[in-house]
Amino acid sequence: MRLATIRTAAGHRAVRVDADAAVETGDADVRALLERPGWAEHAAAATGPSHRLDGLDYAPLVPSPEKIICVG
Predict the structure, then answer these.
(1) Any domain includes 70
(2) Distance CA 42, CA 16 (A)
(3) Domains held by the chain: number
(4) Phi, psi of 54 (to 5 degrees)
(5) Which of 5, 17, 71, 72 could in theory staple to 59 by disulfide, Cβ–Cβ 3.0 to 4.6 A?
């Protein structure tokens, strides 16, 4: 399963990316989705608004990370 965070007119939304569309999961971003117990089942069963893949405005997966870790 592929996940993404997209920008919409209503703000950021987490989506499940299928072969032909991106379906909103009802979460604000991928971080919010992953914090949910049973996130995989929730994302797989999502039936929110659908978006065409060619018109998506991708955002960072986690728009406001708590930590940034760099290795150099």
Answers:
(1) no
(2) 10
(3) 1
(4) -75, -10
(5) 5
Q: Please report where in the chains the tokens 């929110």 appear, as a residue.
A: 48
d(CA 16, CA 43): 6
Q: Distance of alpha carbon 58 from its chain centroid, rounded?
A: 9
- In sequence order, the β-bridge partners of residue 50 are 23
Q: Interior CA angle at 64 toward 72 and 47, to 5°?
A: 120
Q: What's the CA gap between 53 and 37, in Å, rounded?
A: 27
- Which pTM value belongs to this model? 0.86
Which domain covers residue 29, as residue numbers? 2-59
29-59 CB burial, b ≥16 within 10 A, e <16: bbbbbeeeeebeebbeebeeeebeeeebeeb
- Per-residue confidence (pLDDT) for residue 72, from 0 to 100: 84
